[in-house]
Amino acid sequence: MRQYWKYIKPYLPFFIIGPLLMLTEVAGEIVLPKIMALMIDNGIGSEAAGYGIGYIISRALMMIGFIGVMIIGGIGGHYFSIKAAVSFSADLRQGVFEKVQKFSFKNIDNFSTGSLVTRLTNDITQIQNMTRMLLIMAMRSPGMLIGGIIMACSINAKLALVLAVVIPVLAIVIAVLLRTAFPRFGVMQKKLDSLNSGIQENITNVRVIKSFVRQKFEIEKFSLANEDLMNSTLNAMKIVVATMPIMTLAMNITTIVVVWTGGNFVVNGTMGVGELTAFTTYITQILMSLMMVSMLFLQLSRALASSSRITEVLKTESDLSDDTAKEKDKKVTQGKIEFKNVSFKYYENRKENILENISFTGNPGEVIGIIGTTGSGKSSLVQLIPRLYDVTEGEVLVDGVNVKDYSLRNLRDGVGMVLQKNVLFSGSIEDNLRWGDESATIEEIRAAADAAQADGFITGFTDGYNMELGQGGVNVSGGQKQRLCIARALLKKPKILILDDSTSAVDTATEAKIREAFASSLKDSTKIIIAQRITSVIDADRIIVLEDGKIVGTGNHTELMESCGEYRDIYYSQVDKEKEVS
To answer: Cα–Cα distance between 497 and 526 in angstroms, integer?
Structure first.
């Protein structure tokens, strides 16, 4: 509850008013059978008892009055309970989403994207439904149970002894059902995680699936996951299905016993017909309240399974935070980069490092190329600069300050990144480019697009910069997507620009123009270019050659051709290949 208190607190009046208003329904449910009993016993025998039609009418009007109050209270109770549940769950969902936004890549990897989606949607919906049901039933069910027992005992204490047998038996049955249900609901939510992860992966990679004609395989894979979820759901719902018949059977048996025994009391003259009618109604209310409590606890067991998953997210601390930052107000002003004996691995229990003893310096205005074979650690290296991950050993400095001493916001504001996987969002081209600078004028946006060689194809679209991009930029080509991402980074005017193989889908002539634009628009910024094509880095001020996570060569193109065998191998393999193609 401590995790949820701050989301409940703003709506605390609704949490209180809703259940209190439901008490009016409870009061009516308790009083109405007693009034009905008086009408039957005193109204029917009016001549002997001295009562007449006036008595019956007065009691009927009294019942109508109670029913009117019950309707008002019931509507108000449901309204405030629903408002409390929906408002609380909306704030909780917002809080969980904000928490996820603070997660590092490592945190997200630990949960998986599909699991986080399930927790933000289905799990919170389960908590919302439970909260609503609890607020409606919190006073109603116990009130009816306690009130019904008191009224039944007041009418005929001997006949009420039947409850001493029924209630403990039903309590034991409910406890057994709950103990069985809780783990099954937890399994069901995990299966839902798996299904959502599969759906997300399938939809994200639908083009690859179609190009390899793997639709049948994916359909079969989904079918297995779907069937697995279905079976686990049915396994959990068997408990819910079993509850209702058991409770109904108990209710009917108890009613038969009460009517049979009470009928004998009526015949013997120790109990009135109206009293027996009222007693039977109270017994039904008591058993109905027990049934509602059982359903409440079943819903609670499912909600607790979801709650534990939400709490897991809320309690997870990001391994990247500003808590230890010594210079939170400092901003990146120059863009000087220093790696000092840096080693890195993604998982603590991994034996070998991805990067090993990396040391180099990048000065403002320089273009630094990073090249190496696939898996040599190029992308891992540059992700340490904006603290997408933290180093395992050594330190990374920006403008002479350890990146851990910056606030994450100020550090990342000074770094522009164009990743290997170019990501665009649904919305217009202009909206996407404004990620670089929200307040940029249209002239500045066009200038950045022109520098990235994107303005030409953008203006060729019917709607130009107002063209709507599909999710992930599905309606533009790979090369266009890359240039839009570069334009977005340029608009940010970062002190450090990182291009992670981000021109692989454009031709060499266009790439050369983009590099020329860097020299003029970001002449004082440090530019790091990771590339597979050696032509992308051949004119860099300094080139770093990586092999198996280690630096095996540093220098310009001429120096590396003389001193670094790995660089020569890459150069000649690509030059010879180009000659063969030509």
So the answer is: 6
Q: What is the mean pLDDT of the chain?
A: 83
**What's the rounded Cα separation, in Å, for the pair 169 and 150?**
20
What is the per-residue pLDDT for 381? 92
pLDDT of residue 338: 94
- Rounded to whole angstroms, how far apart are CA atoms 310 and 124? 8
Residue 238 confidence (pLDDT): 76
Mean pLDDT of 36-40: 78
Burial of 514 (0-12, 13-18, 19+ CB in 10 A): buried
Q: Give which of 181, 78, 200 is closest to 133, Cα–Cα.
A: 78
* pTM passes above 0.85: no
pLDDT of res. 25: 83
Give residues with Cβ within 8 angstroms of 186, minimum separation 6: 305, 308
Beta-carbon contacts of residue 148 (< 8 Å; ≥ 6 apart)? 30, 282, 283, 285, 286, 289
CA-closest candidate to residue 137, choices 244, 248, 292, 282: 292
The string of pLDDT tens digits covering residues 492-550 is 889 999 988 877 767 778 888 888 888 788 888 999 999 888 888 888 899 999 998 99
- pLDDT above 70 for 2: yes
- Measured N-to-C along each axis, helices 215-268 and 273-315 cross at an angle, to the nearest 10 degrees, of 150
Quote the radius of gyration of the chain (alpha carbons, Å).
36
Residue 321 has φ and ψ, to the nearest 5°, of -150, 175
**In this structure, what token pair is assigned to residue 558?**
């001429």
DSSP assignment of 287-315: HHHHHHHHHHHHHHHHHHHHHHHHHHHHH
Q: Decide: residue 273, CB within 10 A, 0-12 exposed, 13-18 middle, 19+ buried.
A: middle
The residue behind tokens 């790091």 is: 528
Please classify residue 333 by burial: count the beta carbons closer than 10 Å to its beta carbon, then call 0-12 exposed, 13-18 middle and 19+ buried.
Answer: exposed
d(CA 197, CA 412) in angstroms, rounded, equals 29
Could you tell me the two tokens for 356?
């090993």
Q: At how many degrees (to 10) do helices 124-155 and 273-315 cross?
A: 150
Using CA atoms, how far residue 355 sits from 372, 384, 567, in Å, is 13, 11, 19
What does the pLDDT average to over 159-174? 78
> In the chain, what are the helix, strand and coil shares in percent, each to the nearest 5?
65, 10, 25
Q: Residue 314: is it exposed, middle or buried by C-beta count within 10 angstroms (0-12/13-18/19+)?
A: middle
Judge contact between 399 and 515, C-beta under 8 A: no
DSSP conformation class of 331 = -
CA–CA separation, 569 and 301 (whole Å) = 63
Cβ neighbours for 372, distance < 8 A, ≥ 6 positions apart: 378, 545, 546, 547, 566
Angle 20-26-28 from CA coordinates, rounded to 5°: 120
CB 433 within 8 A of CB 487: yes
Cα(566)–Cα(373) distance, integer angstroms: 9
